[in-house]
Amino acid sequence: MQQLWGTRNSNNLRIALDSLVANRLRSFLTALGIIFGVGAVIAMLAIGRGAKEEIMNQMKLVGVNNIVIKPVTEKKENEEKEGTDDAEEKKTNGQEKKAKFSKGLTLADAHSILRMVPTVEAISAEMILDQDIIYKSKSRKLKTVGVEPSFFLLNNIGLSEGRMFNEEQLSKGEGVCIIGAGVKRKFFLSEDPIGKDIKCGQQWLRVIGVTDEKLISSATKENLGIRDYNMDVYIPIQTAVLRYRNPAFRISENRWERNNNPPPIHQLDQLIVKVRDPEQLTESAGIISRMLKRRHSDVEDFEVSIPEQLLKQQQKTKDVFNIVLSAIAGISLLVGGIGIMNIMLASVLERTKEIGIRMALGAQKTDIVMQFLFEAVLISLCGGIIGILLGVAGAYFVDKVADIKTIISAISILLSFVLASSVGLIFGISPARKAANQNPIECLRHA
């Protein structure tokens, strides 16, 4: 019995294939909705997965519990105002108001935050300097960054060679440095950099370590505003304070001289604060902001941001984008299914006489149902295969041309096959039943 059922279905499948081959153009046009729908599904899932992975990588870079504090130029009040009223606002009892003085973002601020805010687990201060790096005949302008050991921990940067700064080097501001993996490739391609001396600006620094390679995409750098850690030269922050950015002294003819008119500059370029509990990020940021404002004489010469919240907002935006793509894919599949049903219904009317002849020769209703159902499913599957190729090509095109990361998974391809076959099965049932319910005598009378 099973052998007979298999033979009958094989025959029904062959008849369905012959019908599709005989009407190739009509079959292709019928499958267009499925092609675009499946292609949209593949592209949507690839873009969505790529965006999610990129967001996760960015969150690993900035840290899930981190708060970033950066110095800003103080906004001058009443700078653009005109008229006599503005002149009166600037005077109090006949004297002009004096601008409030702030020392800017300093190491003292960092130590105060760590000491006074109980929710803070660690803090990393950074001083970023543009310096000409020279070793033998090689020279390049790079970032020299004054840091503490906590910087490497908060930014998930390890060492591939050498060692970390010790307490003596940190406290005395010794002339030592840790170079990025890219700096090693640039200056020490064929030799060991550990123990070598490089010139950074006016100072000689001894290399004591090399960082691990940290891969960061150009899109991530742009979105987060971060630099290439592999091309940085890291020095103890006290070294940066004493040798590079001490406004009380200046270098004149290779000698240190006291600067009687120190410029009003920020000592630090960035502070990264790690909070113990992610739930306390917003509250801690508010406390730190109010604390710094008091320390800076109510001068808002800094900005506090929470990278995780910014990234979550980006994720929400991309989720909306994925929902729109999903809706487009769903509509395309629905239209494709309706197209299949319409064409199959038209095909039933067109092939009424063929149905009558088959039934007169002994074909059962199940044979007629399976014949038209096979046709609908085959159209869907062929459209699904073409749609998968189109979706993969589209995802690759988006990745290379639009510079949007895409990841194609086996699950998305399997899902596309399931969707394509389901559409053909669901929308092919009605035409198949209509064909099977035809009266054989009436079918044979049909011209």
Describe the structure.
The protein is an alpha+beta fold and 447 residues long. Helices cover 55% and strands 18% of the residues. It is built from 15 helices and 14 strands.
Protein topology:
Elements: H1 2-22, H2 24-62, E1 66-71, H3 84-89, E2 91-92, E3 95-96, H4 107-116, E4 120-135, E5 138-147, H5 149-154, E6 159-162, H6 167-172, E7 176-179, H7 181-187, E8 197-200, E9 203-211, H8 218-224, E10 232-236, H9 237-243, E11 249-252, E12 255-258, E13 270-275, H10 281-295, E14 302-305, H11 307-350, H12 352-360, H13 365-401, H14 410-436, H15 440-445
Parallel strand pairs: 5-10, 7-9
Antiparallel strand pairs: 1-13, 1-14, 2-3, 4-5, 4-8, 4-13, 6-9, 7-10, 8-9, 11-12
Helix pairs in contact: 1-13, 2-11, 2-13, 2-14, 11-13, 11-14, 13-14
- Most strands sheet: 6 strands, mixed, barrel
H/E order of the elements? HHEHEEHEEHEHEHEEHEHEEEHEHHHHH
**Rg, nearest Å:** 35 Å
Report the mean per-residue pLDDT as an integer: 78
**N→C terminal distance:** 36 Å
Q: Biggest sheet: strands side by side, in what order?
A: 4-5-10-7-9-8
List the total number of helices: 15
Estimate percent helicity.
Answer: 55-70%
**Count of distinct strands:** 14
> Structural class of the secondary structure composition?
alpha+beta
